[in-house]
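Thread amino acids onto this structure.
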């Protein structure tokens, strides 16, 4: 009888212990529901310079219940902490939601603010690129390269090699080769090019644009950029209408 009673008590203790809520250290629940973020509307979004950016909407839920979303962002080429409708750039918008256990969920949206020049007096715009490197075709219809007008009248270009490494190879914006171009006379293809560089494998390599030609009718810019690592890039940029 004593043995039977002892076994019965042990079973009762096991049942009660299994009904208790299990927790981890710090009082966090053992099962956490990560935030689920839904980004509404188009992605990416293209807006002309000077046009207000209207957020299409974003929601976050934790186990079906809506929670707060924090929005942040930055300009990929010209800086800034949020979408600036007056400054052409690619803006990377990040949405973050945090669950009750302190775990984050994130989602993103890309917003392009673009000034579209007429290619006669203004070469600013959003472009797709076709790239030939050392005589070998590498990429076509590659998006995107941004050309924008600086306050001093010069033009900035997000990448002098057509975003070969940034978008073609997929290394991101830190591998682009930003350029500064002075348009002395667009109609006669008279341009002056400031030296530029790309950081690859930890080394800053010099790149020189040797020539550039604008075809206003075709909406194209053709250019040659020579990289002192031993590569010559022949790039054709085709303006994209937005």
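Threaded sequence (242 positions):
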């Amino acid at each position: 009888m004593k043995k039977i009673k002892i076994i019965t008590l042990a079973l009762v203790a096991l049942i009660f212990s299994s009904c208790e809520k299990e927790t981890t250290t710090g009082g966090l629940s053992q099962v956490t529901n990560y935030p689920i973020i839904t980004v509404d509307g188009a992605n990416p979004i293209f807006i002309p310079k000077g046009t207000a950016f209207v957020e299409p909407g974003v929601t976050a839920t934790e186990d079906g219940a809506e929670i707060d979303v924090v929005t942040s962002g930055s300009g990929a080429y010209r800086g800034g902490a949020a979408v600036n409708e007056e400054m052409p750039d690619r803006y990377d918008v990040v949405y973050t939601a945090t669950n009750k256990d302190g775990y984050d969920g994130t989602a993103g949206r890309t917003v392009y603010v673009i000034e579209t020049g007429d290619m006669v007096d203004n070469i600013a715009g959003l472009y797709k690129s076709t790239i030939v490197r050392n005589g070998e075709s590498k990429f076509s219809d590659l998006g995107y390269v941004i050309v924008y007008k600086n306050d001093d009248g010069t033009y900035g270009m997000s990448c002098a090699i057509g975003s070969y490494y940034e978008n073609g190879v997929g290394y991101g914006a830190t591998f682009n080769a930003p350029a500064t171009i002075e348009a002395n006379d667009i109609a006669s293809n008279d341009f002056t090019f400031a030296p530029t560089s790309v950081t690859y494998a930890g080394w800053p390599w010099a790149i020189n644009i040797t020539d550039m030609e604008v075809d206003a009718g075709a909406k194209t810019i053709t250019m040659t950029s020579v990289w002192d690592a031993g590569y010559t890039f022949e790039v054709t940029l085709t303006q994209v209408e937005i």
